[in-house]
Every structure is written in structure tokens, then in C-alpha cells.
Amino acid sequence: MVEIITIDGPASVGKSTLAKKISNYYKVPLLNSGRLYRAVALKMINNKINIRNKYKILHCAQTLTNENMNSQDLFSSKIDKIASEISKKKYLRDQLKIYQREFPKKYTGKKFVVIEGRDIGTEIFPHAKIKIFMWADAKIRAKRRYLQFLKKGGNARLKRIYHEIVSRDINDLNRKIAPLQPAVNSVLLDTSYLDIEQAFSVLKKIISE
Questions:
Q1: Do 74 and 35 meet the contact criterion of CB atoms below 8 Å apart?
Q2: Rounded to whole angstroms, how far apart are CA atoms 92 and 129?
Q3: Burial 69-88 (b: 16+ CB within 10 A, else e)
Q4: Do 55 and 62 touch, CB atoms closer than 8 A?
Q5: What are phi and psi of 165, to 5 degrees?
Q6: Do 32 and 19 meet the contact criterion of CB atoms below 8 Å apart?
Q7: Hey, is 194 helix, strand or coil?
Q8: Which of 5, 2, 1 is nearest to 207 (CA)?
Q9: CA dihedral defined by 108, 113, 115, 121, rounded to 10 degrees?
Q10: Which residues are within 8 A (CB) of 126 and not within 5 positions of it... i.e. 6 or more apart?
Q11: Numbers of helices and strands, H then E, in the chain
């Protein structure tokens, strides 16, 4: 059975960037679980679906395509807010859990797959051998997100982004269903004062060991 590397952590901690670097370096498949919720949120916006409409939201999840997952419109404050809200819904988490657990089965010929999100090591793949939980100071994460927006030519306010990240952390850490927390046997990696290459170097050592 293909081995699974889980990478969890809060918003803007560098999970996606590092997961992608691992995927490219080892030439293994990657699933960004946060994109699942973002893709559902985007479909809800495009189809004007009310956040209380369980059946239409489930239909969005059941009909996700690669095009939905790779849309350039997945990253905005509006998407962040909706994705955070719908991620609290057990029926949606159960539906997307099926998608996530089926993912490694598609790549049995690979040494391992990388799956990143917020509850991968605790809820989705609790028996994974390599679990990473990333963290960083909220102010540092806000600055990173702010610079990302500027790089893409967008307009952003650092103070607003900081408050959004703190709010998202509070919601994720305190939600009743699959709260954000490190798995008991995970490796904790604080990236507050590490750049991407330094953090990547640490992860390579963890994987090789």
C-alpha cells in the first residue's frame, strides 16, 4: 500500500508551497484538501447557492472536477470565509473524506503521496506514518498572505488580513467537528523564522529518516 505523508496546519503557514515542493522533488502525487472546500465555495458563489442549502452544496462536492480544483479564482477573502463556514458542516466533510481517502488508491505504483490540509493526520489518515504539523505566528502569516496578494497584483490591507487569519484560527481550533490540532505522533514544525528553503530542508530530513 502506498505510504501517506500528511501535512497539516493553519492558514498561510506555508503548507501548500512546501507540499508542492515535496511533490515535485520526489515526483509523487499531491492533494491539497483545502482546495476541495475552496472549489465547493467557488461553485456555490458561481451558482448562487445559499450556505444553508445542504443538497446543492453536496451536489457541488460530488461533481468536483480537476478544472474546479485548479481554478485561478480559488483564493480570495470571500472564498476564505465561505470555505471556513462550510468546513464546519459534517455532511460535507463526510462527502469530501471519501474523495480524500480514495486519492492514494489511484497511485499504488508510487512510493508515497502527499496530502495537506487541517485534519489529514488526525481525521482522514490517522494511521499515516509520516505526519507533519506546521505552525507560525499569526502576524508573520498575515504578512506572507499580504505579500502574496501584492505579487498577484491584487489590493489588500495587512491589518484586515491579520484579523481574518486570527478569526480563521479561532474557528478552526474550536470547531466541534475535526478541530485543527496536531496528531499525537506528528512532527511539529514552526516556520515563523524559516524561509521556504529552510523549511523544505527540514522536511526532507524528516522524510528520509
A1: yes
A2: 26
A3: eebeebbeeebbebbbebbe
A4: no
A5: -65, -45
A6: yes
A7: coil
A8: 5
A9: 90
A10: 183
A11: 9, 5
Q: 196: which 3 cell numbers?
A: 521556504
pTM of the model: 0.86
SS3 content of the chain, % helix, strand, coil (to 5): 55, 10, 35
Give the total residue count for the chain. Answer: 209
Phi, psi of 112, deg, nearest 5: -160, 170
Per-residue pLDDT tens digits of the chain, which is 209 residues long = 789 999 999 988 999 999 999 999 999 999 999 899 999 999 999 999 999 999 999 999 999 988 999 898 998 878 988 998 898 899 999 999 999 999 999 998 898 999 999 899 999 999 998 999 999 999 999 998 888 888 877 777 899 999 989 988 888 888 888 888 998 889 999 999 999 999 999 999 999 87
Residues with Cβ within 8 Å of residue 1, at least 6 apart in sequence: 104, 108
